[in-house]
Design goal:
Blueprint (H helix, E strand, L loop, with lengths): L9 E8 L6 E9 L9 E2 L10 E6 L4 E6 L5 E4 L5 E3 L10 E2 L8 E3 L4 E3 L1 H35 L5 H18 L20
Antiparallel strand pairs: 1-2, 1-3, 4-5, 6-7, 6-8, 9-10
């Protein structure tokens, strides 16, 4: 039934809507003053009986209800990344998702289940080794630079000269590390300054 204004006060049954989603949230009575309209966020159009897993949403323009899937509170997983997605809005589940959680960091979706992705794990191990190697080379370079300056300026102590030679050997060995063997890498041991 469509609401019509009246010239006398009345109490009518209204169906309350959530302001943001326009979903049905309950029925109640509303006191209507003469020559006034309905309170905000309600209608006199009766909602359909809610089916399990659905929510009734009101369309103001059409003055009609429609049923929408309601998965709010559900956790699904993006099949391309494995990222967890928490559903907060009514509607169908996002495409490309599953309710099955991946079992680890290096898994991929095969269309029906998560399977171990050996290639992704291998690539992550190699990238981690490359980052470690780059950091170790930076530390070696930062150690060698002032020692080299001291030698070139004839200001180096015997310990600094010895450490410079050891650090250069270490840097060469480090530069030869094959990161494609990760995680089975025998990293060279950084010389210790005994001075």
């Amino acid at each position: 039934m469509t609401f019509k204004m009246a010239n006398k006060p009345r109490t009518i049954t209204v169906f309350n809507l959530r302001a943001d989603t326009k979903e049905f949230i309950g029925e109640g009575d509303a006191y209507i003053q003469p020559f006034t309209g309905l309170p905000a966020h309600c209608t006199t159009v009766s909602p359909p009986a809610a089916k399990r897993g659905f929510v009734a949403i009101f369309d103001d323009a059409e003055q009609a209800w429609s049923e929408h899937e309601d998965h709010r509170g559900t956790v699904v997983y993006d099949v391309s990344s494995g990222q967890e997605i928490y559903i907060t809005e009514p509607g169908p589940l996002p495409p490309g998702t599953t309710g099955i959680a991946p079992g680890g960091a290096f898994e991929k979706w095969d269309g029906s289940a998560w399977i171990k992705d050996d290639m992704a794990e291998r690539q992550a191990l190699v990238e981690s080794a490359e980052n470690q190697k780059a950091e170790m080379l930076k530390v070696a370079n930062d150690t060698i630079a002032p020692l080299q300056d001291a030698v070139e300026l004839d200001m180096a102590t015997d310990e600094e000269i010895a450490l410079l030679g050891e650090m250069k050997k270490y840097r060469v060995l480090l530069s030869r590390v094959d990161t494609s063997n990760a995680p089975d890498i025998a990293w060279p041991v950084e010389p210790v300054n005994v001075a």
